[in-house]
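JOB MANIFEST
job_type = single_chain_structure
chain_count = 1
residues = 218
[input]
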Amino acid sequence: MSGNRTHIVGLQAVALAVLISACAQAVAQGGADPHAHHRGTASDSGAAPGPVEAVELHDQILITQDGEEVRFAAEVIADYIVVMDFVYTTCTTVCPVLSAVFSQVQDDLGESLDERVRLVSVSVDPGRDTPERLKNYSGQHGARPGWFWLTGEKASVDLVLQGLGAFTPNFEDHPSMVLVGDARSGQWTRFFGFPSPKQILTAVGELTEARQLLAAQN
């Protein structure tokens, strides 16, 4: 059984790599992908981190995939190291790739998920992305506790997105982007395009080491 599982996981990893490569090429060429207007630089090797302007965490009340009201900054981000993306459930190209990457990151984080690291997927289409739809979508990617899918009143979601540099008037134009950060230190890395799980985990590791170094100095 373990041998079969290893084989399946290996195939999933290969399939994910192929999917990222194919979608990255499509976005870069602006042809095959109907959402090629997603901003960002994509390449076969993933995505390069870009400059991070000030990230502002607006403490708006949002709703999780389980229908629970939560305060974005105080209860979701809180004191965690956070990996965040921006999706909508009717997207058939870019968003499923990012969600597949997050699913792999979730597996690689293991027990540290929801202990010191959280994954956060914010809907850019809160008008249609109800908690029920997010619950179904998150289930397709095997989301476990510690991976938050957020929607809510449009005004509240828009304000949160604005603070994160992820708002666009037309949700279909939202940037293909991943944020990795530590609210405690205010350090953030912004990846445009399709970062690999390894790139994301490296950024998480650097933030974790920075915390440990600061704790040792104190």
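[summary]
Residues 1 and 168 are 47 Å apart (CA to CA).
The first helix runs from residue 2 to 29.
exit_status = 0
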